[in-house]
C-alpha cells in the first residue's frame, strides 16, 4: 500500500496483534555479548513473519526502536533500513528507526497503530533491539580526531552511569533512587520487589512459560570453531537469592538505593510484533491474538522518570473513561524496582491497600530485573509478555507502561477476546 495515500478507516476496524516474538535476553557478558543489535533485529524480523507465513512484501512499514546509538554507530546509521534489507524484505519497504530511550519499541507500536488508524498502512511491524555488551568504547572527536596529534587516546564508555552527564543530567539510577525515597519507597522495598521479580520468573518458567515457540525464539550464534551456540532461555534470572545478600550490595552511581540487585542488567535482545487492520487479518486468514485498544505517550520533569509510567497509564485510561478496576493485569517495566513501585504508588493514590492489590497483579511473571532490559527491545517485550499471559488466562484487558531517559513514557492498552 502506498503510504502517501490516505484512505479513511472504518471506525470499528480494530488494530490487532497477529504475531509476537522475542529472542531470549542475554547477560552483559553472556552468549550475545558480541552479537550486534542489527543481527538480533534481523533474526527477530525473519521469525515474526515466518511464524504466520506472512510474505514480507505485504508489510507496509517497519518501525524499529533502539536507543544506544553508540552500539550501532560502528555499522553506520539507519539500522532499521539495514535490518529490513538483511532480513530479505523488499527494497520498497518503508522503515524508520526510533530513539525514544527505553520506550522506543513501544513507541514503534504506537507509530504502527497510528499509521493503520490513519489509513496509511494495513500491515506494520513494530520491533526493537539492543546489544549492550556489544557497545564499543568511543574516542571523542574533540579528544582523539582533532585533539591528539601525538600521544595516547582516551576511550570513553557510554554505558557508564547511563545518564546524560555530558549535558548536565544525573544518572537515571540516582534520579530513580532519590524519587523513590521521596515517595517512601525504601531500599528494602526495592530489594524485596527485585527478589520477587526473580521468584516470579522461576515460577512462570516452571509452569512452562517463557519457552521457545511462544514468546521466545531459538537463537543460534555461530562460533569460530564447532557447532553454533544455542540460546533458548533468558540468561539474567538468578536463583538462590536472599534479602540478606541483596542488602549487602553497594548502591551504584551515587544513587541512595539502586544496586546491581534491584536494577536490571545491561542486556542484549530483540523483540517484534506484526500488527494489522482486523479486516486484513480476516482476509489473510490470520487469528488476532489481541486488540490494541489505545496507545499513550507521556513526558515529565527529567528527574521524575519513575513517575511517568503512572502518568501515561492515567492519561490513557482517563481518555477512554476507564479506571484500573477495568484492567486485569499490569506490566510496568522494571527500569529499576524503584520505577515500578513509585508508579504503582502514584496509581494507588497513596491508598496502602490499593498499592498492595496493584502489586499483586503487576509483572505477574517477573519483570526486567529478572528477564533483562535490552533497552530498545523492552517496550514490545512487556506488551507481548502481557498479551501471552492474558491469552493463557482465556482473555482479559491489560495495560503495559514503560519509562525512558529524561522522563519519557509510553503506555498501551490491549484486550484479548
Ligand atoms: C548495576 C550494574 C552497573 C552492574 O553491572 P555488573 O557489575 O556487570 O553486574 P553483575 O551482574 O556482575 O553484578 C555485580 C555484583 O552484584 C551481584 N549481584 C547482582 N544481582 C544480585 C542479587 N540479586 N543478589 C545478590 N547479588 C547480586 C553479582 O553477583 C556481582 O557480584 P560480584 O562482583 O561479587 O561478582 C549494571 O547492571 C547496570 O548499570 N544496570 C543498570 C542498567 C540501567 O540503568 N538500565 C536502564 C534503566 S533506565
Description:
This protein is α/β, with parallel strands linked by helices and 417 residues long. It has 14 helices and 11 strands. The protein has a domain of 166 residues: Peroxisomal Thiolase, Chain A, domain 1 (3-Layer(aba) Sandwich). The strands form 2 sheets. Strands 3-2-4-7-1-8-11-10-9 form a 9-stranded mixed sheet, with helices on both faces. It has a two-stranded antiparallel sheet with strand order 5-6. Helix 10 packs across helix 11. The mean pLDDT is 96. It binds coenzyme A. Coenzyme A binds next to helix 6 and helix 8.
CATH superfamily of one domain: Thiolase/Chalcone synthase
Pick out the low-confidence regions.
none
Tell me about the largest β-sheet: 9 strands, mixed
Count every beta strand, where a strand is a DSSP E run of 2 or more residues: 11
Shape: globular
Going by helix content, strand content and strand pairing, the class is alpha/beta
Mean pLDDT: 96
Q: Into which percentage range does the β-strand content fall?
A: 15-25%
In short:
The chain has 417 residues and is α/β, with parallel strands linked by helices. The protein has a domain at 169-209 and 292-416: 3-Layer(aba) Sandwich (Peroxisomal Thiolase, Chain A, domain 1).
Descriptors for this entry?
single chain, binds coenzyme A, globular, Peroxisomal Thiolase, Chain A, domain 1, nine-stranded mixed β-sheet, 11 strands, 417 residues
Could you give the topology of this structure?
Blueprint: E1 15-22, H1 37-50, E2 61-65, H2 69-73, H3 79-86, E3 94-98, H4 104-117, E4 123-131, H5 141-145, H6 172-182, H7 187-206, E5 219-221, E6 229-231, H8 243-247, E7 268-277, H9 278-284, E8 290-299, H10 308-319, E9 329-332, H11 337-348, H12 352-360, H13 368-371, H14 378-392, E10 396-404, E11 408-416
Parallel strand pairs: 2-3, 2-4, 9-10
Antiparallel strand pairs: 1-7, 1-8, 4-7, 5-6, 8-11, 10-11
Helix pairs in contact: 1-3, 4-14, 6-11, 10-11, 11-12
Amino acid at each position: 500500500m502506498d503510504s502517501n495515500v490516505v484512505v479513511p478507516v472504518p471506525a470499528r476496524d480494530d488494530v490487532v496483534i497477529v504475531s509476537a516474538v522475542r529472542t531470549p535476553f542475554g547477560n552483559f557478558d553472556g552468549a550475545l555479548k558480541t552479537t550486534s543489535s542489527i543481527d538480533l533485529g534481523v533474526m527477530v524480523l525473519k521469525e515474526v513473519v515466518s511464524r504466520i507465513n506472512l510474505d514480507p512484501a505485504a508489510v507496509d512499514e517497519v518501525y524499529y526502536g533502539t536507543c544506544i546509538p553508540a552500539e550501532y554507530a560502528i555499522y553506520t546509521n539507519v539500522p532499521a533500513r539495514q535490518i529490513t534489507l538483511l532480513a530479505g524484505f523488499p527494497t520498497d519497504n518503508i522503515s524508520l528507526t526510533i530513539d525514544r530511550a527505553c520506550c522506543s519499541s513501544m513507541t514503534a507500536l504506537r507509530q504502527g497503530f497510528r499509521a493503520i488508524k490513519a489509513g496509511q498502512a494495513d500491515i506494520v511491524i513494530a520491533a526493537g533491539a539492543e546489544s549492550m555488551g556489544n557497545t564499543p568504547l568511543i574516542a571523542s572527536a574533540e579528544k582523539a580526531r582533532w585533539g591528539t596529534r601525538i600521544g595516547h587516546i582516551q576511550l570513553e564508555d557510554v554505558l557508564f552511569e547511563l545518564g546524560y552527564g555530558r549535558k548536565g543530567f544525573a544518572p537515571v539510577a540516582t534520579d530513580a533512587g532519590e524519587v523513590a525515597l521521596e515517595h517512601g519507597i525504601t531500599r528494602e522495598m526495592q530489594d524485596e520487589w527485585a527478589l520477587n521479580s526473580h521468584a516470579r520468573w522461576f515460577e512462570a518458567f516452571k509452569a512452562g512459560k517463557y519457552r521457545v515457540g511462544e514468546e521466545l525464539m531459538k537463537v543460534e550464534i555461530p562460533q569460530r570453531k564447532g557447532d553454533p551456540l544455542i540460546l533458548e532461555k533468558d540468561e539474567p534470572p538468578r536463583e538462590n537469592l536472599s534479602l540478606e545478600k541483596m542488602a549487602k550490595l553497594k548502591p551504584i552511581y551515587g544513587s541512595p538505593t539502586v544496586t546491581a540487585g534491584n536494577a536490571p542488567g545491561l542486556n542484549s535482545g530483540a523483540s517484534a510484533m506484526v500488527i494489522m487492520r482486523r479486516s486484513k487479518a480476516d482476509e489473510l486468514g490470520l487469528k488476532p491474538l489481541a486488540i490494541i485498544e489505545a496507545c499513550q505517550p507521556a513526558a515529565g520533569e527529567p528527574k521524575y522518570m519513575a513517575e511517568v509510567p503512572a502518568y501515561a497509564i492515567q492519561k490513557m485510561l482517563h481518555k477512554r473513561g476507564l479506571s484500573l478496576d477495568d484492567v486485569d493485569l499490569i506490566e510496568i517495566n522494571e527500569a529499576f524496582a524503584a520505577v515500578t513501585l513509585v508508579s504503582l504508588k502514584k496509581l494507588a493514590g497513596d491508598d496502602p491497600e490499593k498499592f498492595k492489590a496493584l502489586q499483586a497483579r503487576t509483572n505477574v511473571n517477573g519483570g526486567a530485573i529478572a528477564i533483562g532490559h535490552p533497552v530498545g527491545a523492552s517496550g514490545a517485550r512487556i506488551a507481548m509478555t502481557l498479551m501471552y499471559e492474558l491469552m493463557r488466562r482465556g482473555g482479559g484487558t491489560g495495560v503495559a507502561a514503560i519509562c525512558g531517559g529524561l522522563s519519557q513514557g509510553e503506555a498501551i492498552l490491549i484486550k484479548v477476546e
